[in-house]
Amino acid sequence: MSPALRRQAPLLATAGILVILFATAAFLYEGFFSGRVVVNLFSDNAVLGIVAVGMTLVIFTGGIDLSVGAVVGFVSIFTAIMIQRGYPPALVAVAALAIGGGLGAGMGALIHAFRLPAFLITLAGMFLARGGAFWISTESVGIDHPVANALSGFELGLGPVGLPTTALTVIGVLALGYVAAHHTRFGRNLLAIGGNENSAVLMGLPVGSAKVWAYTINGALAALAGLVATIYTGSGNPSTGLGLELDAIAVVVIGGTLLAGGRGHMLGTLLGLLVFGTIQTALLFDGRLSSWWIRIVVGLLLLLFILLQRGLLRGAARGK
Amino acid sequence: MSKSKSLSPVWWPLIGLAVLVAVNLALNPAFLNVTVLDGRLYGLPIDILNQGARGLVLALGMTLVIATGGVDLSVGSVMAAAGALAAVLLAEGHGLAVALTAGLGVGLLAGAANGLLVARFGIQPIVATLILMVVGRGAAQLMTNGEVVVIKNDAFAFVGNGTVFGFPFAPLLAIALFVAAQLFLRRTASGLFIEAVGDNETAARFAGLGAARVKGLVYVICGLCAGLAGLMAAANIRAADSYRMGENMELDAIFAVVVGGTALTGGRFLLLGSFIGALLLQTLTTTMYNLGVPPAVAPVPKAVLILVVCLLQSEHARRWAVSLVKGGKK
Predict the structure, then answer these.
(1) ipTM of the predicted structure?
(2) Do the Cβ atoms of A249 and A261 come closer than 8 Å?
(3) For chain A, how many structural domains are there in total?
(4) If you measure CA to CA, which chain B residue comes closest to A301?
């Protein structure tokens, strides 16, 4: 294998697995191979996809954020309550994004300035956001507002299928995330920090600001995912997004991004999301297999990819 | 500053615990009261010990893993899988011995799998144990078919809420395990081996230490602890709930260890500190409960506690605080 090909091997492997999975499902289940199913892959997993894009950026730096699921829950109930109280939806949305981004910025600043473990600080963030969500309300609150209804009812017609707001949002976020990660100085800085933070400092890269921005963007994206979840379900619920951080990390890792940081690709996150969605949809089509199989299959895929990456890294080290 | 440095690190969680107990006593003078009813001890301290027993057992295993510079995210899911398997076996009419062996077996297997990935394949502990964190709960749900399995076996329930001379069995077991671990690790060189691997793995290997074997073993011990905690959890409520059992327990266990003064970076470990840390956490939960704070909001004070502990342990934060104080004096 040429070095260039080997670098992209995890990505190619994910693409291969996606094709095999989708083809098998299309063969087994009637009606699986359709535009509707593909659109649903995006719209049903929009929340996960948006969160995974932010998580990819944080993982690029070698960090991790456990708070995203809780932020989704907080924003969900916050938005519903504020709209119920009569605040304009646009203002509420901006406030939600500011809260998510603010929490991310605070955690990023603590992690960077005091060299605190990202794992523990974002764990504290998770407790804070989830506790805050339940403090606002312990019960789910329905939304009935013309703007929210218009958003959840909207579909962009594309020939036989329509793209709903949720799918449009996740596709937009993925596209922006791709550009930010691979076609800007910011994205390169993140990967450089994850590769070797000391080298990045010595190269004169703005390590501190890049790291804090990564957590800030991630927090804001989690808030956006919370808004999408609220629109998608038509209600706010403080327990939305329970365990979402795990799924997001799994999607990123299945996409071939190294959890140690410094290596990865946003396209991998897109493929990982589609793999996750395909397994879930296939289980739904089948109907015989219980839904908890998804955890087991995703776990085995994780194992496969981690061992694959390990083998590739060792191979690369030997090749040098 | 110099004064705090000479203080044994075990004092910090102890002081925290004392403050918490004092707050509780101020709010409820009967907080420490223990009464005997039907030959059984009752009271809030007994409650805390009883409910905290699982956290104590998990913290024991987690301390050793963290001491080697690792972490085990799978313990909560392994708890669920162990408890679920034991409950299903009991429901099928198997005996106590089978259920206990199966539960511990799940823990042993999970620990061995984690140890293999971390020690043999050199995979980052967070990633390696993430796999079983995801799979374990799925397996638990599969075993119980997603339903709550009720346990009718009285002998099994003893593991969770039996008493010995009026004192609850579960915390006695946890305390016994801590004492045994402390004696074994400190009277033999094994504790030193663990610290050596956590401090500098390469140096430990060059010193002729089987670093991989030490690392593998701590995950096996941690898995066994998780299996036992799962059995205790199922026995305590006489049921296995594959969704909620052990939920967030991995975070609580890690938290107890960190509060107890063992750094996440590995090296020196303090079993006594983890013991007090786990008790502190349970006392905090019980306090919130008694104050009438809804259980769902209880994570907030935990978050504050983590932040404070992290900042106290951070060299950078201390230096920054010192410079602030000095700057203020000028």
Answers:
(1) 0.80
(2) no
(3) 1
(4) B131
